[in-house]
Write a structure and sequence with these properties.
Layout: H1 10-24, H2 26-32, H3 37-46, H4 64-75, H5 79-95, H6 100-107, E1 123-128, E2 131-141, E3 149-156, E4 161-167, E5 172-174, E6 188-198, E7 202-204, H7 205-210, H8 228-257, H9 272-302, H10 311-338, H11 349-361, H12 368-379
Length: 390
């Protein structure tokens, strides 16, 4: 298929059509514990992985608003597939912050690199001539089954945290991803032992988060200078919102058709209890959508400030992202409890949406107690700590 051009409105139609394909393949994706290869190739051909890559590197140069909208629509079909695809696209955006030499290496052939990025700093790096020698074990390498490259996070001996990029063939992938939800993400573990990484394939994580990474100067006017943490928080919350919207469609259709057991033939859609539960779910999903819209608007408005974005805005987006996931989970719980036991069959999208969003809610960024504590602390003028992940 032809690559889709940003800013034309064509992405929304593509995403809605692709979402139907994701839904058709959702059971297959769970069986594979990975996004089906046909999906990856379709998404790649459309240019989705390149959406956030600057135009001068052959990307789409899309706004975050457009990218997040496409990702939300995809998630209505299969939450864990959309999570995987959206993070692979966002990691391509992250790589545009690295050294110019790495960008030449990764993007020279016109293909956008697919690079999982388990970002917890659970590796070690030792400075040597020309680069670093790294070792470590990193969990949650989402999309690693489709990877060309890998971005890992190390603590430098005698220094600070450092991101390191390496070809996927130089890492060992441990097949450990057997989970109750988000099954298709294939978020396996990767291991590296005493591997040399050239200097140009590394970047100080402190420079990435608090200063101006070298790649930003190469792409004036692009979104590459937007701060990393709030962008990643919203992209992670977006599949949960899409799942809740998809569940709302599933539940509504189900209640229109379902005949209530032991009721003498009364349709579930005619029962006041159904009206209450559906109305409650509608209100909850609409609230999540408004919070999502507001968070994106703030990112678009203040993102050009780069890492000078005010800490109050960083905390606002962190709290909003956690709230989106909390509300999505609440809405899907409400609908699942009212949908009847047969909605638990593996052929039902509702049970998968429930499991996926419950799994998303376990992510450290969406820990509600932690997110609210950080939000309250910042509102009182107390400085954040590095563990706050702002």
């Amino acid at each position: 298929m032809a690559r889709i051009t940003t800013g034309t409105g064509a992405w929304a139609a593509w995403a809605d059509a692709q979402s139907l394909l994701l839904a058709e393949r959702a059971e297959e994706a769970e069986t594979l514990r990975s996004v089906p290869e046909a999906t990856v190739r379709e998404v790649e051909a459309a240019g989705y992985f390149a959406m956030m890559v600057p135009r001068d590197l052959g990307g789409g140069g899309a706004s975050f608003t457009e990218f997040f909208d496409v990702s939300r629509r995809l998630a209505k079909g299969c939450t864990s597939s959309a999570w995987t695809l959206s993070f692979l696209a966002m990691h391509a955006w992250l790589l545009c912050k690295f050294e110019p030499a790495l960008q030449v290496e990764l993007f020279a052939d016109g293909k956008v690199p697919l690079a999982p990025a388990p970002l917890a700093p659970t590796g070690q790096a030792v400075k040597v001539d020309g680069g670093y020698r790294i070792s470590g074990r990193w969990e949650w390498a989402t999309g690693v089954n489709h990877a060309d490259w890998l971005m890992v996070h190390c603590m430098e001996e005698g220094g600070g945290p450092r991101f390191c990029v390496l070809p996927i063939g130089e890492a060992v992938v441990e097949d450990v991803w057997r989970t109750a939800g988000m099954v298709a993400t294939g978020s396996n573990t990767v291991v590296v032992e005493d591997l040399f990484v050239p200097e140009h394939r590394t970047l100080s994580a402190l420079l990435m988060k608090f200063a101006s990474p070298p790649g930003e100067a190469l792409h004036p006017g692009a979104t590459v200078n937007f701060p990393m943490s709030p962008a990643l928080a919203i992209v992670a919350a977006t599949p949960a919102l899409g799942a809740a919207e998809g569940a709302l469609e599933t539940f509504t259709a189900r209640m229109k058709a379902k005949v209530q057991a032991y009721s003498g033939g009364v349709k579930a859609g005619d029962m006041p209890a159904t009206h209450l539960r559906l109305g409650e779910a509608l209100a909850t999903v609409r609230a999540a959508r408004l919070i999502w819209d507001d968070a994106i608007a703030r990112l678009e408005r203040e993102g050009p400030l780069g890492n000078a974005m005010p800490v109050e805005s960083l905390a606002h987006i962190r709290l909003a992202s956690a709230d989106i996931v909390r509300l999505a989970n609440l809405a899907i719980n409400t609908m699942s409890a009212a949908a009847g036991a047969s909605s638990g069959f593996l052929t039902s999208p509702l049970q998968r949406q429930l499991r996926d969003v419950q799994m998303i809610r376990g992510h450290v960024i969406f820990d509600w107690d932690r997110a609210t504590q950080i939000g309250g602390k910042i509102a009182l003028g107390i400085d954040p700590s590095p563990a706050d992940l702002l």
